[in-house]
Amino acid sequence: MDRVSSRRMFGGVGLYAGPRLFGIVFRGAVYLRASDAMRRDLARAGGSGPFRPYRGREVTAYWQLPAAMVADKRRLRAWARRAIGAAESAAQQRTPGRPRPLAPKPPTRPLLGPRRKGRPPR
């Protein structure tokens, strides 16, 4: 398993394995990135549902782990590994967006120095 780190985000804590967000701790509950198979398994285990950061918003990519699974370190570690795999899989399936520019663009016209008073801007 990659090194796991955490960062504060939207009132909770994001869990990362390398650059990939694979889990969220929010209001005392643990949510993990879930594949379709993981969602089915969590639904069967009971006490699970999608991440709801606020009323009217549901993030179905992350599902809550039941408290019994969080309390058992061995099971928690196994689910975390599955979540990391789901995050990796989702990242590979995502279509690449436009690359971000590395440096700011140069001005489109050369800067000619200070404007003289009374001249309207171009």
Strand order of the largest sheet: 1-2-3-4-6-5
| Helical amount | 25-40%
Strand content: 25-35%
Provide the CATH topology.
Answer: Yope Regulator, Chain: A
The structural class is alpha+beta
What is the number of E strands? 6
Termini separation comes to 58 Å
CATH architecture: 2-Layer Sandwich
Element-by-element helix/strand order: EEEEHEEHH
User: What is the average per-residue confidence, as pLDDT, rounded to a whole number?
Assistant: 80
pLDDT < 50 stretches: none
Shape: elongated
| SS summary, helix count | 3
- In the CATH scheme, the class would be Alpha Beta
CATH superfamily: YgaC/TfoX-N like chaperone
The overall number of domains is: 1
Q: Give me the Rg, rounded.
A: 23 Å
Q: Would you kindly provide a written description of the structure presented here, covering whatever features stand out?
A:
With 122 residues, the protein is an alpha+beta fold. The protein has one domain (4-93): YgaC/TfoX-N like chaperone (Yope Regulator, Chain: A), CATH 3.30.1460.30. Helix content is 30%, strand content 30%. The chain contains 3 helices and 6 strands; from the N terminus they run E-E-E-E-H-E-E-H-H. Strands 1-2-3-4-6-5 form a 6-stranded antiparallel sheet. A hairpin with a 2-residue loop joins strand 3 and strand 4. The longest helix is centred in the last third of the chain and has 21 residues, at 73-93. The protein starts with a strand and ends in a 29-residue tail after the last helix.
